[in-house]
Amino acid sequence: RRGPRENRVRPAIDPLFRSAAVSHSTGVIGVVLTGMLSDGTSGLLAIKRCGGLTVVQDPRDAAFPDMPARALERAEPQHVVRLAELPELLVTLAQQAAGEPQTLPPRLREEVEIARTGRSDMDTMDRMGRRSVFTCPDCHGIMWEIDEGNLVRYRCHVGHAYNAELMGI
């Protein structure tokens, strides 16, 4: 109910996954299932960077294949399974020992804090990405382009965030 919207919704999967990655590092298993657009992809990238495990439903098995297809394409998850195989895989993964804690990227901590509070400043945003020519659809402020390799996102200093496809790019 609080905090800025991400990809036009609140709550959103990406901030949840980022928060879990920052809080629990190698103890996180992120799962993206059927859905539309690409929410979850950036969060899976964060989980991988922090040493957690990533799982995506096979898009051919999904009622709405957009989310798993984009996650598969851009986040390169460690596991891709049909929905019927997911419970067994999760039991197996949950029984494995977590790896050694990873050094968390500072930007990731900052993004979690922005999502939590809805506050940031220009210096923080300049460290996260580069200023773009776009304005935020929600607050009409400046948007910063955040490059995550296969994924480009935009975030304003208030904390609203959008994947490039939602920005119409």
Helices and strands in order, then pairings?
Elements: H1 13-24, E1 29-32, H2 41-49, E2 53-57, H3 66-75, E3 79-81, H4 86-95, H5 106-117, H6 122-128, E4 130-135, E5 142-147, E6 152-156, E7 161-163
Parallel strand pairs: 1-2, 2-3
Antiparallel strand pairs: 4-5, 5-6, 6-7
Helix pairs in contact: 1-2, 1-5, 2-3
What features would you describe in this structure?
This protein has 169 residues and is of the alpha/beta class. Helix content is 36%, strand content 19%. The chain has 6 helices and 7 strands. The strands form 2 sheets. The protein has a 4-stranded antiparallel β-sheet with strand order 4-5-6-7. Strands 1-2-3 form a 3-stranded parallel β-sheet, with helices on both faces. Strand 4 (130-135) and strand 5 form a beta hairpin. Helix 1 packs parallel to helix 2 and helix 1 (13-24) crosses helix 5.
Radius of gyration: 16 Å
* Strand line-up in the sheet with most strands: 4-5-6-7
Low-confidence stretches: none
The computed structural class is alpha/beta
How many E-type strands? 7
Q: Given the C-alpha coordinates, what overall shape results?
A: globular
Please give the alpha-carbon distance between the first and last residues: 28 Å
Portion of residues in beta strands equals 15-25%
Helix and strand run: HEHEHEHHHEEEE
Count of helical regions: 6
Relative helix content: 25-40%
Largest sheet: 4 strands, antiparallel
Mean pLDDT across every amino acid position: 93
